[in-house]
């Protein structure tokens, strides 16, 4: 069996992957203007400051868009087709692209999702998303 390609983090992205290994989802926050951003970038796209740090986020959001992939881009994914690739709009107003651990017929725009951490080995833990069932707090806000 072929092994799926794994991330080879750059120095800039190492904090994101180190947090994932700890079961936390983090993104960059600009210390100059407070804007959150993902994917990791050396400068803030809003104010151009290079002063930033990692901030932990909830990992909750909704599906902004998605596509169902029927052709594996790598042999290691052949037994997973069809699978869903989605853009998730996080509650923290950033978007992440992810595969979803759900059958395609379960996926819909605006469906609530949450992060989970898929530990591959000692070096690699992948933040992935799945459909979130409404909890009591969600029911009270309706």
Task: Describe this protein's structure.
The protein has helices spanning 14-21, 136-140, and strands at residues 25-30, 36-37, 52-57, 60-69, 83-90, 95-100, 112-119, 125-131. The radius of gyration is 16 Å and the shape is globular. The mean pLDDT is 91. It is 9% helix and 37% strand.
Arrangement of strands in the largest sheet: 6-5-4-7-8
Mean pLDDT: 91
Distance between the termini: 47 Å
Share in helix: under 10%
What general outline do the C-alpha atoms trace? globular
Q: Helix/strand-derived class? A: mainly beta
- Hey, roughly how much beta strand do the residues contain? 35-45%
Order of helices and strands: HEEEEEEEEH
Unreliable runs? none
In angstroms, what is the radius of gyration? 16 Å
Number of helices: 2
Number of strands: 8
Query: Describe the biggest sheet?
Result: 5 strands, antiparallel
Compact description:
This protein is mainly β and 142 residues long. It contains 2 helices and 8 strands.
């Amino acid at each position: 069996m072929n092994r799926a390609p794994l991330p080879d983090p750059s120095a800039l992205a190492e904090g994101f992957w180190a947090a994932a290994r700890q079961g936390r989802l983090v993104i960059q926050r600009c210390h100059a203007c407070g804007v959150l951003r993902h994917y990791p970038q050396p400068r803030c796209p809003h104010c151009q400051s290079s002063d930033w740090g990692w901030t932990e986020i909830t990992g909750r959001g909704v599906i902004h868009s998605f596509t169902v992939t029927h052709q594996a881009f790598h042999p290691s994914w052949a037994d997973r087709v069809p699978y869903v690739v989605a853009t998730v709009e996080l509650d923290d107003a950033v978007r992440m692209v992810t595969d979803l651990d759900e059958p395609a017929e379960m996926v819909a725009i605006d469906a609530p999702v949450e992060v989970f951490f898929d530990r591959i080995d000692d070096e690699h833990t992948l933040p992935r998303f799945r459909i979130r069932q409404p909890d009591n707090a969600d029911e009270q806000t309706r």
